[in-house]
Input
Amino acid sequence: MKLIDKMINCKINDISVTVEAGTTALDAAKKAGINIPTLCHLNLHELGAVNKSANCRVCLVENEDRGNLVPSCAEVVTEGMRIQTDTKKAVMGRRTSTELLLSNHPKDCLICVKNRDCELQTLADDMNITEIHYTGEMMSHPIDESSGAILKDPNKCVMCRRCTTMCDDVQTIGVLSPLKRGFDVVVATAFHLDLGDTSCTYCGQCVSVCPTAALVALPQTTSVWRRLNDKERHTVVQVAPAVRVALGEMFGYKPGEISTGKIVSALKRLGFDAVFDTNFGADLTIIEEAKEFVERLENNETLPMLTSCCPAWVQFIEHQFPDLIDIPSSCKSPQSMVGALSKTYYAEKKGIDPDKVRMVSVMPCVAKKAESAREQLNKDGRKDVDFVITTRELGRMIKEAAIEFRSLDEKPFDDLLGESTGAATIFGATGGVIEAATRTAYEMMTGKELKTVDFKQMRGMEGIREASLEINGRTLKIGIAHELGNARKLLEDIRQGNSRFDLIEIMACPGGCIGGGGQPYHHGDISILEKRRKALYAMDAGMKRRKSHENEQVMKLYEDFLDKPGSKKAHDLLHTSYSVKARI
Output
């Protein structure tokens, strides 16, 4: 008999529960409707991430048969086992564990970036801990801001090791690990290197699961406020597609509820001189990528071609697969394209000194902060993008300004860089970029109208997916992966010659940008990502124009400024290069 087929009968607080063999006391209690507090526990089966190291001891319960305390996240129930979660011993055990964590934790909650969103803070409140009975020496480690994307503060670490589970098991980067022992133990990089000197991709998935503020997106809101108050500068902003299906969660909306018009209205009230849509850049990216792909096919050049919109994925291939560095598309990401055009095309049309234009991006992604600092995206002393704030940072700015988000009117994006199609909208979900690209590549290759634009075989949440598309008698093989662990499997198959693809899309984060490290915290509820994903496809389905080359503002951009897709000027402004980096 297989272990999974065997059923176990146990009791949780005298409630009879039947569960599969191998079930933990924590999961058995959930089945009985009993809540046990946790901190280090992380159960993301859909992502292949299960952290049950039982380090924090916050989930202690009493094994009535043995009379001792056990961590419920790691204690596997056996036939007839009796577990009590609310005895004095269990309650005091959990309280003591939490107090010990608090005793070694900074007391700056009021000014902490995760104030009211910190799981340790919530535990202390739930347990009614109003004083700490344990005092003594506290950790003292340097704060690391070297990456330009992630702020690492080991002094706020509770050694839950969720970050190492995500970094090692899901993303397979292996940058973070516990070092030393006892009181000196700390989650750090090899040889205590600065994060910016490692192979970290800045995907931010460690940030998305950290229960405290030991790992957060490096804040840039103060710098943005300064630019908004600098009347000598013309400060513009762009909004990524995944932001509009997630920001509302910070204001009481359900996951996936669309708040595009209210976001534009809020940004205008914050004082931005113009509000652009990153989706415009997504449509432009698709046209340039489709052109590049068709040329590679026709000229028998390097295949497969990989889409290059995800900066964490770009960082990944530069460090991990240097021998494949010639296969990503040379196109910049939509963020950088809109940034470059704001300081050339937009500035020229509006008669503004390009040196006075400052571009701020609102992104679901932590890695976009690092992308904006890439040397290849700095031309003539001008960065394509000056500042990047996450979805969460924008939400905090709106609250800081006391703007009543739910009461705002719906406003459109500004002209020149504000129109978009349904193809651009689905950029925020895994498989969306490749679907958008095939819609345009099909018509570019055949000269015929594509009647059915929904390529549903490219959609879904499976980690690795394959699809095929018949164009002009040629069957194109398409590969799709999200999460870097899946990307590694796909690329190793290509490297070893086990798989042949023509076009590949890779997104570093679960579900794509909808699960970015800068999005509102989903706290392990993967159904939230699914709701965001469905919302993007619903937006696409409801739009009049659903192919990137149908974007009239983009076509006018080519007519007035860029000449044609793939032109010398287009390459100069919209394309980039990559460099091999050391794997550390």
Remarks:
- The longest helix spans residues 278-298.
